[in-house]
Automatic annotation (TrEMBL):
InterPro entries: NAD(P)-bd_dom_sf, SDR_fam
Parts of the chain that traverse the membrane: none
GO terms for MF: oxidoreductase activity
Keywords per UniProt: Oxidoreductase
Protein's recorded name: SDR family NAD(P)-dependent oxidoreductase
Domain of life where this protein originates: Bacteria
Stated family: Belongs to the short-chain dehydrogenases/reductases (SDR) family.
Pfam families per UniProt: adh_short
Length: 293
């Protein structure tokens, strides 16, 4: 078992890291740790005012750029404006929509933001990336089952938990197929995924009346949740740890809900290469963005 902590982050002076959704929660904790280690950290956020406020409280070199993962036009604009190498791309931003909602391009929002937005961003930035790509997944992927006939919930009754679980399985399949493609081209870039554990962040906070399931979550948080700084450790381990590509990192205790980061297992579906290739092809078709690897 690893004893990885922020003290094990190497000197990152001279490197550049992009963290999506860096204005709060795990993203902010990740950005803070990377900047403290010397990296220039770009806060890629939808709300630049909130991003600027968060960056102002972060040590080291920071920059704020607008990125709305719910809009492919925004993703394209962000990528088109980028110059220079990227040592770390942290695909952190995520949502869990209580009600069915859609992105600017008509995708179901949870799948559209958590997977398709990051798929598009990574694909468009890939020519600049020299180090690692870390995508936040979740142990909830074990409860997923991708319905390729209705990925955007046009026919099915919407279920928040199922939509979220499916998006997290997609994150792992994307990581696996990306690493396969990178390896095939001889690239030294590594693609990893991280499960932060149970962390009380904004993703679990929703307006409106509390449902029975919300009370269950509140109890779970009270008993098992860890803070954002601890939740960021598996992400940081995936970013700088001595681990191979296509690693999946997560907490070591209580069914991977909390504890020091380590390599963890994933479901059989998340290891299915045919499923990964199918999702990649479907993602290219849906976004209209095709990979060069």
């Amino acid at each position: 078992m690893t004893t990885f902590g922020v003290a094990e982050i190497p000197d990152l002076s001279g490197t550049t890291a992009i963290v999506t959704g860096a204005n709060s929660g795990i993203g902010l904790a990740t950005a803070h740790a990377l900047a403290a280690a010397g990296a220039r950290v770009v806060f890629a956020v939808r709300d630049t005012d909130k991003g600027a406020a968060a960056a102002a409280d972060t040590p080291g070199r920071t920059e704020v750029r607008e990125l709305d993962l719910a809009s492919l036009d925004s993703v394209r604009a962000f990528a088109a404006s980028w110059t220079g190498p990227i040592d770390l791309l942290i695909n952190n931003a995520g949502v869990s929509m209580r009600e069915l909602s859609r992105t600017a391009d008509g995708f179901e929002a949870t799948f559209g933001i958590n997977h398709l937005g990051h798929f598009a961003l990574t694909t468009l930035l890939l020519e600049h990336i020299t180090g690692r790509i870390v995508t936040l997944a979740s142990g909830a992927e074990r409860l997923a089952h991708l319905d390729f006939d209705d990925l955007n919930w046009r026919a099915r009754p919407y279920r928040q938990s199922r939509a979220y679980n499916d998006s997290k399985l997609a994150n792992l399949l994307f990581t696996a197929e990306l690493q396969r493609r990178l390896t095939a081209t001889g690239s030294g870039v590594l693609a990893n995924a991280a499960h932060p554990g149970l962390v009380e962040t904004n993703i679990y906070r929703h307006p409106g009346p509390r449902r029975p399931v919300d009370r269950l979550w509140a109890l779970a948080f009270r008993l098992l949740a860890q803070g954002a700084d601890d939740g960021a450790l598996p992400v940081l381990y995936a970013a700088v740890g001595d681990i191979p590509g296509n690693s999946f990192t997560g907490p070591s205790h209580f069914a991977h809900l909390r504890g020091a980061p380590q390599l963890i297992d994933r479901s059989a579906a998340a290891q299915d290469p045919d499923l990964a290739r199918r999702l990649w092809a479907t993602s290219e078709q849906l976004t209209g963005i095709h990979s060069t690897v």
